[in-house]
Amino acid sequence: MSRRTGRDSRTALWAGVVAAWAAACGGGGDRGEELRPDVPVVLIDPAYPDESEDGSPELPRELPGDEFGVPGHDLDGGANEIDAFEVGGDDGDTVEEPGGPDTPAASDIVDDTDLSVPEDGFHEAGGDHTPPAEDLGGADLGGPEDAKDGFVDPGPGGCGDGECLGDEDCEDCPEDCGECPPTLWFRSDWAETLDGPIVAGGRLRVRYDLDRLTQCRQTHNGLPAWTITLFYTDDLAKPPREVQVVSHGPDGQTWPIEPVIDVPGQARDLWFWAKNTGIEGCVAWDSNYGQNYQMPVFLAEEVSKPVEWVGWREHGLDFAYVNEWGVVVSKGDVDPVWYFDSLGGAEVTTEVRIQVYAAGITDRLYQNEAVTAEVAHTAISMAAETDFAQGAGWPGAPVVLVPLEFEFQASNNFFYRWLFGAFGYVWSITPSGPPPPGLYSFRLAARTHNGPVTWVGKPGAPASARGLVYAPNPDLGCPIFPGDPPPDLCPGR
Q1: What whole-number distance in Å separates Cα of residue 319 and Cα of residue 329?
Q2: Where are the domains of the chain?
Q3: Using the 8-state DSSP alphabet, how is residue 144 labeled?
Q4: What's domain 309-480's architecture?
Q5: Quick one: which of 90, 297, 464, 477 could link to 471 by a disulfide (CB 3.0–4.6 Å)?
Q6: How far apart are CA 377 and CA 372, in angstroms?
Q7: Tens of pLDDT, residues 252-261
Q8: Tens digits of per-residue pLDDT, 423-481?
Q9: Cα separation of 341 and 473, whole Å?
Q10: What is the strand order of the sheet 203-208 is part of?
Q11: Closest-CA residue to 210 (of 224, 196, 195)
Q12: What letter would DSSP give residue 162?
């Protein structure tokens, strides 16, 4: 159940006036930007050149089957700036804005391990610690006089009474309000992010930053006279649905609306695009340059089953160096090491690499690398359970979960790494400094979003932790290896 709203009659009336303006404003061009029954509903930008011979917009082209992410590519998906905006008038001028399965390795499956890893903290394995969740500002709207910092405090409520009322929400009172749906966030920096997989037959909350589409912010009698409409569909051949993502109060307040939409049970993708309409006929579009934003939808069983395979070729993992020229040199399935004097001083870092295969997730083609990366961190969870943690670890410390970094998609697999130089261990970026030298333990964990954990640890005993040495140099590090050290760093061991 979503939060209840408390908008008063004045606000409802004002919202109706703005909606009427939106319906009346269709731009001044001759391409027909209104949603008419005789025009396909895939909204191509006013300045987007692809049209069919009869003048109607063409559907976005299918992506080629070989567009997988590759190493070294930027995963930000490009600067999806405003596509175009159109100012009403006699000539309808359009102004373009600048664009901003391999053989499975042995594995143990455990059903009761929580591997959700927040961006701003860690779960302590087996403990009661719950890290702070990022506040996505998911309040529904009360009256404009209740707005604070752009969002609304709906007032007091009591959790546990079976009703989702007052200031209760799915984050603070899931027993009354139910589990929070995943959030698709259209950010002001032109990134699109997810905090969970979109599941067919489920729900999805949409957040649209109002600073993302800033054209056409027209006024009437000193008050805001513009609105942003978000369109979405699971079938580009059918009319889209639409929701408002902004509201104005009678005294000039403006705040975002975060609608929760139902995901059709048959959906395999959802397409989104947005339109900002001003009272004087100005129209601005956000539609990924006519391709629309294509977000994957998964079946519940796809994100609830064990992963089919995790490892590195015929091994459990791969330890590798990254040399001063950026070349990755594989050392095989050996215990990893980080020598913070000799390796760090030579601008060389080390990493643990691993691949995962999950049918329906890792073998699927996505719109671009940025979407692939969102899937890799939401539909799949990859983490190292270890006592080697910046600012909190020491040999024998309570283990934490360190999320692995997604690299790319290839050969139907997702590739991840645990890059030691990326954590700031060497450069003491936290006040507490780097962890002390010594022999640490770790094991890797792979799972789908709601699925059981598959462990990757010692060869032949994947649920058992293996060693990791952190020391200034080989002379001090090699003697503390329990076994399987990198042979070129510890000859004769």
Answers
A1: 9
A2: 1-100+139-298, 309-480
A3: G
A4: Sandwich (2.60)
A5: 477
A6: 9
A7: 999 999 999 9
A8: 544 444 455 666 788 999 999 999 999 999 999 999 889 999 999 988 878 888 888 88
A9: 6
A10: 192-194, 183-186, 203-208, 260-262
A11: 224
A12: S
